[in-house]
Amino acid sequence: MTDWEAVVGQHAEIVRRTVYRLVGNDADAWDCVQETFLEAVRLDRREPVRDWSALLRHLATARALDLLRRRSRQRCRCSEEADPAQAVSREPTPSGYAEASELADRLRMAVGRLPRRQAEVFCLTCFEQMTSEAAAGQLGIRPTAARMLLSRARQRLRRLLEPSGAKSKDE
Amino acid sequence: MEDRNDFNPDELLERAVDAVFRDPIPGELPPERVAQLVAIVRRAAQEPHPVTLMERIKNMRWTTHIAVAATILLALGGLVSWYVPGGGATVALADMAEAITGIRTATWKTTRTIKGPQGQPETITENGMFMAPGHERVEEQRGKGLASIVIVDAQKERMISLVPAAKMAIVADFKGPKGQPSPLARTFADLQETITAAQRGKGLTVERLGRETIDGRRTEVFRMMYDNPTMKFSMETKIWADVKTSLPVRVERVGRGDPEFHGVMTDFRVGVDLDPALFSVDVPNDYHLQHQMQLDLSKGPFRIIAEVFGLAAENNGGVFPAALHGEQGIDGIMKRAGEKMQKKFEKEGFQKLPKEVIERLRKQSDKAMKMAAGIAGLAAITHNGDWHYAGKDVKLGTPNRPIFWCKFIKSYQVIYADLSVKEVSPKNVPKVPQSEGSPQQK
Fold first, then answer.
1. What is the pTM of this model?
2. Which A positions 36-75 lie with beta carbon below 8 A of chain B?
């Protein structure tokens, strides 16, 4: 019998941080946190979970990506985007913080436009700092497949983040 | 500024990843949210286990396996399923917000419970209709006939109430602040706004209560709570959302405090064909206009609130009450004044009265409407707002004496003892001793 109080107590904060990093606001993050644990309940019924941390981070990433994809479909294609050439400074000036925040939002939106598997591998390796082997284990794929998906994700993201006029088509 | 020709996509992606890491994540999950999450997860874990196709196959004898596998291959068109519906799909609050705000037309039934004249509970049934943007029509049923029809046009900022039995119409023109939801009562639009606010985490706490089946439809149940302890009022909205469409199947709203109410919305139908003429706010040709009211809240509710303060002072021997809240505060005094007015209406009624009495009652009903609007405005503003009250023992009519000030958008609105209202900048807020204020007062 799973001790849900212990599981939630130990992992809720890390789940929240995982989703918040992707969705960027508290209300959506809270929604994703709940969905993550509900999905964990369903999976726990099928077979015992050995690594709660890895599983919950995977589920949290997947739920956050679902939301990013919905947002991406909703947003107007004509919305103004910052010229990436403006977001060049690493100095912590006030405008630098605003540009960095905007760049972060653009990356979130771009991740929402990736094919599902590419997005999952990218988030698990780049944001959750998993190795490609660990990410592959979570996704049930071979490490070589994970590395290929990551490479394709990065290529596509580079194109999506390019300045206006040089954007590639979505798939 | 770097030349666009020097743009390096690899570097930009790395900077973007770094920017996501540097984006601050506020605070941490408060203990009450963790407790809420534990409760949600425990409830879900206790739900009946939906048996999946794979589980049934795993538990079969090997001979049956082969027969089953063959059947499955034949049935790959999707016609055979031993999967018990209910697992897999969840309703996200965001999904529900998206689904409900996208509705163009809808109809529903509402059953409300109110207190009758002798305090006995009475049940009222209403048929509601909605057409975007901002049109609603609610028909109240009594027996076989219609008791009243209320039509709201939020864009024209007008509401018309029709009494078919008397061919009577009452028109109310409300002007609200720009960019804010209309102050007119609109059941469906209010539901949309509640769900959207909950999804954005604004002013409401949300809890998932698990799954229920209603009329054969699997639903996810949410509870949204609005709590204003200052005004001793709370509203609970429970929504049963269809797991397939994310649309409401049932909505229950319970108001506790003042006012108390209980209503249940069911039989939702969306995308129905509705005649725009149903939402006309013009007085029908065969009706007479009994009364027309106007309320201007475009600059916020402060002028109305000032009138409420004045009424409170009049009912308190000509001085402003000691506090905003409490039995001897403004809201306590106004509540008793409102009850007195209500009893007067019930005693004198509205039919078969001399014209001058009807005219007096009409003015009082305008006054009552303004009082209600002012009290509602005060409740909204003092709920988690930056406000200060300094009216204790101040005489009504004293010039240049601030008694209440409150942050509104980017400046402060100040009400004076002579009931004038002025807008001041944050650096010019009054410096008189305060008897009561929000947590933000210095």
1. 0.51
2. 37-42, 44-46, 66-67, 70, 74
